[in-house]
Each structure stands twice: as C-alpha cells, then as structure tokens.
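User: I'm putting together a small comparison set for a docking exercise, and I want a reference complex before I start. The sequence is below, and the ligand is magnesium ion. Could you produce the 3D structure with the ligand included, as structure tokens?
Assistant: Of course. I'll restate your input first, then give the structure tokens for the complex.
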Amino acid sequence: MGKVFTTRSADETVALGRKLGQVLKEGEVVALDGDLGAGKTCITRGIAEGMGLISDDVCSPTFTIVNEYTDPADKMPLFHFDTYRLSGTDDFIAAGLDEYFYRGGVCVIEWSSVIDDILPEGTVRINITGCGQERNIDIDDPEGRIC
Ligand SMILES: Nc1ncnc2c1ncn2[C@@H]1O[C@H](COP(=O)(O)OP(=O)(O)O)[C@@H](O)[C@H]1O
Ligand SMILES: [Mg+2]
C-alpha cells in the first residue's frame, strides 16, 4: 500500500498523472490496476503530459497491446500497454514485449496484474478504486516521490 490520493473528476486524475510524469526517469515502469472505467487511461494521459508528450490521442491500446508516444521527438518516449487481452506473462514474452522495458522510455501498463511476475524491481504501482466521480488512487512509488 502506498499513498492514497482522492480525485473527484477526470481532470484531477489527469493532473495527478502529470505530476508523476514530471518525475519519471528512463527505464521506469508504472503498473496500473483497477476495473474498466477506473481511470487508468486517464492517469496515463496525465503522465504523457508530464513527460512533455502530446497526450490528446492517448487511448487504451486494447487491441494493439502497446502504443508508442514519441512526439515531440526529443522527449523520452512513453510506451503505453494494455495487457487485458493477454493470457499472462508467457504471452507477453512470446510477443517480445518485455524488450520495451529496455528501450530507454517509460512503460505504463494497464491491467499490469496479468504480468505481475515479471514487473521489474522499482516498478511504481498504482491501484484505482472508487465510484461515481470519486476515485481513490493508491500510488506506491518505491522512491516515494509523489506527495
Ligand atoms: N475522478 C475521476 N478520475 C478519472 N476518471 C473519472 C473520474 N470521474 C469520472 N471519470 C470517468 O471515468 C472514466 C475513466 O475511463 P478510463 O480512464 O478510460 O478508464 P480505464 O482505462 O481504467 O478503463 C472516464 O469516462 C472519466 O471521465
Ligand atoms: Mg484504459
């Protein structure tokens, strides 16, 4: 369990993601869990903004599994995963997706529990719960940066 933040709108969740995006470093992994509609994509949009990337088109890569955000080109890239349709870690590795961990960007993974056993040490874990407009966003950052 990390630090729990409560947001009351999608914009507040984006703003929280933005803070995190500003401090993330090359090679880091952010693991996102929470039900459908919890706000995983929403917080990812904020992370993209915080990293200085164009975030308008951030949406769940449910069918493509991974989307790469590299614009503007001089910024650290964001690799945004949605592992919902994978059966598990074997699927992830068979597709060579673990190589993204070493590509010099930040990996944000929706439904990360699907590949929990291969998440690298130091992974920032985020769990989102709530209903209505309210979300409790539990951020467990081993480096304790977000407060
Ligand atoms: N506090 C909040 N934080 C994030 N999203 C919220 C919040 N309140 C309502 N919402 C709505 O919940 C939905 C979250 O969708 P999304 O981020 O795509 O979820 P997920 O990727 O977890 O399936 C959006 O329609 C958003 O407008
Ligand atoms: Mg999503």
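The helical segments are 10-23, 40-50, 89-94. The first strand starts at residue 3 and ends at 7.
User: Thanks, that's exactly what I needed.
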